[in-house]
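Blinded run. Sample ID left blank on purpose so nobody reads anything into the name before looking at the predicted structure. Input follows.
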Amino acid sequence: MRKTVDVRDLAEQRLLLLRDDFISRRWFNAACEVAHVRPRVLVPTNVRVARTGVRVAPMVFKGRALGGWMGISWDPRRFLPPYAEKLRRRVDRIYRAIVSGK
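Blinded prediction complete.
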């Protein structure tokens, strides 16, 4: 099993992808456009899928990971709703794991 999947290798595969309004889907679309690949999308979705029987691997183009920087900005004078605090903690945990290599 390969550790990554190049977007060019997905040209003939049927894919279940997130909707176009997700930033990761926009990164994927941009990589496909640069690679001159037109993905065969079954159904754009935002439904969570159990990983049982689903292959999950980082996608790359020419050996470089798809993605970009993201951040969360909030005016400290405003109320921070619980869901936003939960997101902030989750992003912080993910970022720390990436930086530490774990």
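Unblinding after everyone has recorded impressions. The beta strands are 5-6, 14-15, 40-41, 59-61, 64-65.
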